[in-house]
Amino acid sequence: MKPLFGEPEKLEIITYLQEDGFITEYGKTKEFEIEIAKFTGSKHCIVVNNGTVSLTLAALALGIGPGDEVIVPNYTMIATPNSIKILGAAPIFVDVEKDTLIAEIEHIKKVITKKTKAIMLVSANGRSPAAGIREFEKLSSETGIPIIEDAAQSLGSYYPDGRHIGRSGEVGSFSFSTSKIISTGQGGALITDDDNLAHKIRRLKDFGRMTGGIDVHDTIGYNFKFTELQACVGLAQMRQLAYRINRKKEICSLYQKQLADIPSIKLFQHNLSICTPWFIDTLADSRDHLMAHLLEEGIGTRKMYPPINRQRCYGTPGNFEVTEAVGKYGLWLPSMIQISDDEIERICLAIRSFYSGIGDPAVG
Length: 364
Ligand SMILES: *Cc1c(COP(=O)(O)O)cnc(C)c1O
Description:
Aspartate Aminotransferase, domain 1; 14% strand; Aspartate Aminotransferase, domain 2; 4-stranded antiparallel sheet; 7-stranded mixed sheet
């Protein structure tokens, strides 16, 4: 990934600065929240300083605390479990569906206990669960366990029923860090249709007070606020969102076409009518050698997330077949919006030449 900020972002910031604003969150932030609420079709949107804090706030607003358990996929960015670890809650890892890398619902059912206070549903790369989102909603309503949607990677992606991802759970969370579909440098957003939750989250992010400048505090709160400069960048990015989404889909189609006949590299499949692939994610044979070969050609790639349970900071036992396979073969190909068609062609040719070399006994 590479950052993509341009003239519209600069212009928006300069115009704002000429108005002598406070820079701390105010009108521009409100506008940005309204744009996200409109785009996702949700009643409320609250922006915060990143997509990890947003998950922590969602969990706090749902009353999660020390000793509670939260079910988390073993394949995700480490922010997902860390966001509740900070509250003294324990992430319980489950393996993921092999085609979507989203938590496998049958595994979730097996680890539910009296201590389970939430399920973190991570829509990996903008995909929706193969089991069907209705199955998750059914489980949630039968057990009373709320779902927090970590939709950090999923702006511009929808469930098959047409709802934007992030709108199925009690609350949905997005990230605007530099690699994501749009960016404000750092930034996160929560969406919900629940007035009470929205109200709680607004207070939690602003010292527990009802209104800025009036120091009455009925509840505990912190400072997880945004800034107007970030909102300026975000508003400019939202105006380009349709282009960004479209280009992500084109990039995915180009890779799909050009790599389809190479059995040694398997691309995860996306329904491009509803999904905006964030990264081009693949399972690649001899992954580490392929990475080295591509690097020699000046092509950067990145290993996909390894199993979180094996990270030293967690080190919890368990058998996670799909996550293990991703840890071994998972590879992200260059996926930045500004990549050219020619560059994609060159990357695909380099991958082809690597695998035909492996097949050649002279190369070994
Ligand atoms: C990026 C990401 C986050 C963290 O967002 P930040 O804004 O970097 O804190 C959380 N969860 C997932 C799935 C992500 O991809």
